[in-house]
Specification:
Blueprint (H helix, E strand, L loop, with lengths): L25 H7 L4 H12 L5 H13 L2 H29 L1 H24 L4 H10 L6 H12 L4 H32 L4 H18 L11 H6 L9 H28 L6 H19 L9 H24 L3 H29 L5 H29 L8 H15 L6 H4 L1
Pfam family, one: MFS_1
Main location: membrane
Subcellular location: Cell membrane
């Protein structure tokens, strides 16, 4: 009688093969295979979410308790102006002394300002305390810029990986701006008016604590002599047209938001404006993830940037055509497609800045780009608001394509600047 085959010992069994990563996701899997990358990304996402929460929370909180949208708008505008001044200074200190030494205390100051704002609103403090408290949140570090700086350091000799990382970071920006405002509005209306601001402060502190503890991926601090010798970003002639393009791109974003809200309100569908705007951000986020894998970087990045901004300008014109039909459904579809043109412009623009600004001042350079973008958003919001109030509502949709054409002109001017062919 034959003996049954004995089972092989577990130690003799072949090792289980790791699950294969889909080919399209392989570039992203490579990013997060870097030790510490998942942790600093998780912390950065938590710390980045308040960027989309603070403004909405402050407006709802102040308008609800003080009964004045004018006061709420003035306080938020003061915070934006303070950010434009303090943000680059914070980034310069991060470049000089390191992310962990500066970003963590700067986040604590910003969180303290947010908590102070909530307390002043809660206990009926004078109006001037609202301005002072919200201005303190300007020390919030540029979390997206610090994350991009880490990727640039990790993959400093791998342009393809840097392209994928920048694509991921752009998608992360869009997702935070999609999820942040609704979360803040929900908390302020379901719980109590100050809850959105307080939640943003907690997320900022917790996320920055996780992010800064990942010291292994932090870019090394350049020697003091190297930092002092590197020219300030604003003195780089090649950077100025890029900042001009980012300013105009910000006008596109800000004017598109206000024009869409006014368009929906004019048709008695103001509640649908948030959904339509979310389609624009989702289109940008999806495009950001796709171009990180499906469209590897080829050719000079300065040429790709100009082409991407020109594409964004064309899609903005399509949005104007959709608005002219009077259909909110067609406008939503057009904004979804238009969003797909925003991400490539932002990804290539940030890549170009990384190749333009000296490594010793990289955070400062990217923060200036974000400052230009935020300034453009404020300008675009004001311009589209004035047009929507004094002219037919659909006329407000002429602002985004006009600004996009100016951005394309500024981006295209980089093609003829001397030295670009040598640098990139």
């Amino acid at each position: 009688m034959a003996h049954p085959k004995s089972r092989p010992d577990s130690s003799e069994r072949p090792a289980r093969r790791p699950r294969a990563v889909p080919r399209r996701l392989a570039p992203y899997a490579r990013l997060f295979a870097v030790p510490g990358a998942r942790a600093f990304t998780a912390g950065n996402m938590l710390a980045r979410l308040p960027m989309g929460m603070f403004t909405v929370s402050a407006v709802i909180m102040i308008a609800t308790t003080r009964g004045s949208y004018a006061l709420a708008g003035a306080v938020s505008a003061t915070g934006l102006a303070a950010t434009a001044v303090v943000g680059p200074l914070t980034a310069r200190m991060i470049d000089r002394y390191g992310q962990a030494r500066i970003a963590w205390p700067a986040s604590l100051i910003a969180a303290t300002g947010a908590v102070s704002l909530a307390a002043c609103v809660r206990f009926g403090a004078p109006d001037w305390t609202l301005f002072a408290s919200y201005a303190a949140t300007a020390t919030t570090p540029n979390t997206g810029g610090m994350s991009r700086a880490r990727w640039a350091h990790i993959f400093r000799t791998d342009p393809a990986a840097r392209h994928t990382a920048n694509s991921f970071e752009q998608a992360a920006d869009e997702l935070c701006f999609v999820g942040g405002p609704p979360l803040a509005a929900l908390m302020c209306t379901v719980f109590f008016p100050e809850s959105g601001t307080l939640a943003g402060a907690v997320l900022l502190v917790l996320g920055m604590l996780i992010f800064t503890r990942q010291r292994g991926t932090e870019p090394p601090v350049a020697p003091r002599t190297t930092t002092d010798a590197a020219p300030p970003p604003l003195r780089l002639p090649a950077l100025l047209p890029l900042l001009g393009a980012f300013l105009c791109i910000g006008v596109v974003f800000g004017s598109m938001e206000v024009a869409t809200i006014a368009f929906a309100d004019g048709r008695g569908q103001q509640g649908a404006a948030g959904v339509v705007l979310a389609l624009h951000a989702l289109g940008s986020a999806a495009a950001g993830l796709v171009i990180g894998t499906a469209l590897p970087p080829t050719g000079p990045v300065v040429r790709r940037f100009a082409l991407c901004v020109c594409l964004m300008a064309f899609l903005a014109l399509v949005s104007f055509g959709a608005a002219s039909t009077g259909s909110l459904l067609l406008l939503g579809a057009a904004l979804l497609v238009a969003g797909m043109g925003a991400a490539p412009a932002m990804v290539t623009g940030m890549t170009l800045i990384q190749g333009t600004v000296p490594a010793a001042r990289l955070n400062e350079g990217m923060t200036w780009a974000v400052t230009a973008l935020l300034s453009g958003i404020a300008t675009g919001s004001a311009a589209a608001g004035w047009v929507a109030e004094h002219l037919p509502v659909t006329t407000a949709f002429t602002v985004p394509p006009a600004a996009a054409l100016l951005a394309a002109a500024s981006a295209s001017s980089t093609l003829v600047r001397p030295g670009w062919a040598r640098r990139r």
